[in-house]
Amino acid sequence: MNKEKVSFGSIAIELGLTTHEHVMECIMIQNQMRAMGIVPKMIGEIMLDKGFINEDGLRKIIYTQAQKEGRIQISGYKIIQEIGRGAMGMVYKGMQLSLERIVAIKVLSPRFAEDMKYVERFLKEAKSVARLNHQNIVQAIDAGISSGVYYFAMEFVDGPTLSYILRRGGAMDEKRALNIITNIAMALQHFDKYGFVHRDIKPSNIMLTAGGGMAKLCDLGVAKVPVKKEGDESQQNVLVGTPNYISPEQARGEEVDIRSDIYSLGCTFYHAVTGEVPFKSENSMSVVMKHLYELVAPPRDKNSLVSGEINDIILRMLAKNKAERYQKPEELVMALEEALKKQEAAFLQAEEDKNASQQRGKGKFPRVSPRRRGSSKSRRRLK
Fold first, then answer.
1. Which among 84, 150, 162, 161 has a CA at the least distance from the CA of 117?
2. Which of the residues 56, 158, 200, 219 is marked catalytic?
């Protein structure tokens, strides 16, 4: 029995789209066609002709088969390797053949591809990113459907997520964390300029370039876009976000604006400098309730190395009442940049002090000319 037949048929059965009996019947038809000297149809075509599966089912089987065999096909792109998996699908490193450039390709999982709600959310992310052009936002390149596969090609960021860094190393150096958060605050400034709200700011949605030189915001799948259409469920005030980083108003299902993203970025900043999320509990609902009603422990209580200025910035970002937070990303960026200038000035001063100390340790004092014996002053004292 041909390996391709078994593979296609077994996947169809595994996905619950047909039965073993139907698969065997199609294989029998294919063998009969071959015996009669007729070029046989593919198993999928026969199953479609017999009504055992529909077009959506066929696409799902082909996609799953390609995925299992590591040969996802997307027109205009070459898949190089899988680099990540998310709730809704896989992410591949690939090459855009027309420009010979490396890209990241997000592919929607076949189990979600059958539900138009998820397809719309997936394509919405691509359209949202395409409308935003900023160095701290992962750039969109292309999106569509190819060989039954929904895909979204975007800028390839050759570094880890902030989440990965925090899992491996715990609390970050304050200056490094400050640089990352400033980058993302600048991205939010661009978001706000065009009326967007991200609604899911968290470490796993922050990518770092190789060497950690720049941070970029990604995953706009649940972003709130400026134009609200009648009956668009994705724009309704449903509970979206991640419990560890969700704002109080978002947790209540209220209308959200950019101040909600500032709160979530504050949670991320807190996590970066302390190595812990603001609130911890056994279950997600309890964490959400703490965001609503419990005062957060100051970052300095968790990490004494956190400066007073950064401590105060984070606490303002995490104000329960959104009217008490930074009202616009511009305000936050100004506060962060001012803190960054002070950090750099303090670093330079520390370096100068260190160098001066090293020079003293080597005995390199300023040269003073020795007084000659028998100077006029000493001679006067002897008279």
1. 150
2. 200
